[in-house]
# Entry
Amino acid sequence: MNEQTTLRIRGMVCDRCVSVVRRELEGLGISVLRTRLGLVTVEGTLSAEQLALVRSMLEAEGFSLLNDRKAALLQNVKDFINGFIESGELAERNQRLSDRLAERFAVDYPTLSALFSSTEGITLEKYTISQRLDKVRELLVYSDLPVADIAYQTGFGTVQHLSNQFKRETGLTPAFYRRIRREKERLQHDSVVTASA
# Structure
């Protein structure tokens, strides 16, 4: 089997981030084998010079390489939270996310939260809410789900709770994002009609 190197990358928390990092690494002549949130596996062993180039590129794009245990733990926590949100498990209210984190990482939640806050500059709770709201925005724009279903799927108790949180964090309403979707569909339809005329 060919040698591989796995890079842990801080700040790589969305699909767009994955695309940017892959493109930039390939631009440096590095063969990317696999990518997922926070992790990139590349072919071969990177030289000190290549690592310096990678580090510089990542910093220019707003990311950074992780190389210590605490940083790796925090990246794993982010990956777990993002996976938990993507899976829709927030809808199953029989276990709280904080309990799942403590169980998964064998660290009590207050300790995990304090470490996260001191390193990331944001509380673990705020990070989780931000990721949940990102998922809400995605579902509002790209799905036909009613807002009540979106609230349930992303772990908000009621539509009102979701709307209040959404407005507080973004300054906008869920209805605004839904309008974006409808406008996008209208524009796509109009461009297809124009192109075929």
Remarks:
- Residues 4-67 form a domain with the Alpha-Beta Plaits fold (CATH 3.30.70.100).
- Residues 141 and 177 are 6 Å apart (CA to CA).
- The two ends are 55 Å apart (CA to CA).
